Input
Amino acid sequence: MLDGEFGEACEIAMSVLVKLGEIYGADRMLNVENVHIDGAAYGWINDAGLELVQKLASSGGRFRVPATLNPSSIDFDMWQELKIAPKVAKKQLRLAKALQSMGGTPTWTCAPYQYGAHLRFGQKVGWGESNAVSFANTVIGARTERLGDLADVCAAIAGKYPRIGLYLDENRRGQILFEPNRLDSDAFDSTDYGVLGFLVGSIAKARVPVVSGMPEKATADQLKSFCAAAAVGGSVALCHLCGITPEAKTVTEAFRGSKPEEEINIEAGDFEQTRQKLSTANDVPPEVICIGCPHCSVQELVKIACLVKNEKVEESVRFLVFSSRAAKTLAEEMGAVETIESAGGRVIADTCWNFIPSKARTVMTDSVKMAWTSLSKFTNVTLGSIETCVDVAVGAKPRG
Amino acid sequence: MTSVRNIMIRCVPVSGGVSEGEALVTNQPTCLYDSLDPKSGRIVNRRHELYGQCVSGRVFFFPYGIGSSTSAATILEASRCKKTPAAIINLETEPIITVGALLAERFYGTIIPIVHRPELDPAEVIRHHSVRVNGDVGLIEVLKHS
Output
């Protein structure tokens, strides 16, 4: 591959990956069975990334393994209504064409583990998108490093990645133990899981955390929220949730027989403090409410539909729900999309809240990931559960 | 102005080249994607303690990267816009940052020396100083003048 025998694109991809492997002391390259490409949005990879992807596509680049695509800069069906700049849409369409010409699956979602990608325990894959990496390692027990944008495109073209980091047993060993035993985690909703994930991530930083005593009944959506938040709170790409993570049925198994470097008891006070830090504007009414970071599943869309049924979103608020095209299509079949939209909300597919033009200063979200990362776009953010978000949207008094 | 013996800190080299600039220091783990605007080189995230500062031409120290895997593309775009830091120093450089530098060199000829795993935490040693980073051998040199 390195000598150009498989074409120029393969040579470029392989030379970048081999160099990376040399820097990090990889003993060899390994085969990845599928790839999730983070940098599928023009708004994320910009002109430099677009030029690079087009160059790879035009010089014979073809994905050697299945590759799912992360959100794009536009909802392909309604970018005009959303007032996306035509210049941006044009470049996104060019990027989509280049990625799809190489064989990319147009999933356009940051939750490919729910729709589009297939993973199994122990499988080696090459994924970008921090929440997806965290979910793949933590919940499925697949093995992936956090691939950088464009390194993921290279990995899909080569079908390979250097054997470093989380591909190796020794780097998957737990390092720091969290015991949230005193929290009422049985009553947790998705947002609570996010707060816990953020707290764990921000203390663990770059170490592999182990959390004991998590309710085994946690749903995929709750785990999605946990994993996404842990990945922005620290650089958590793998968190052993004892009883959930397949390679960590017990604390002993998570630590592979070694002792924790540190043990942290999470108290209710720490948890509340973290939740407060994530909101900056509890008293300011939001102008826009966003749900779906990471993308909503069908179940979440149906849940939102049940909550807004027979209600009306206030005129002063934009109520936006983000999902994948696949989940939206299924939810349409179930009538959930119509219910949300006739209440005054909008279900947006293929894209991310990041790319929706907005003059709003204050945003409300159920997502800890968004609450933490949205302040380069908004001035203030309020965090609340899906129920609270809907209550605020329809002007109802908060429940409970 | 005579220069006195410079302070040297040994590191592990990540990305090659030698360059110097005024140090820009944060102890906050940093996600370049949601903090750095690659077109202006400025830190635009209000959650970041360097909010409003410009990384362009500076020797940028942050302990390690967090969050988004988009940071690689952020470095590549900053390189296209000629707004990259002069050099990067981390306690631990994640491959996401390194890939950005590898691509920037290959496609735009931009050299961003990167070093990590310094023998001591350089934050307070380099703060307010001009610094030379040698990414070939793995060395930080604090350029002091008396």
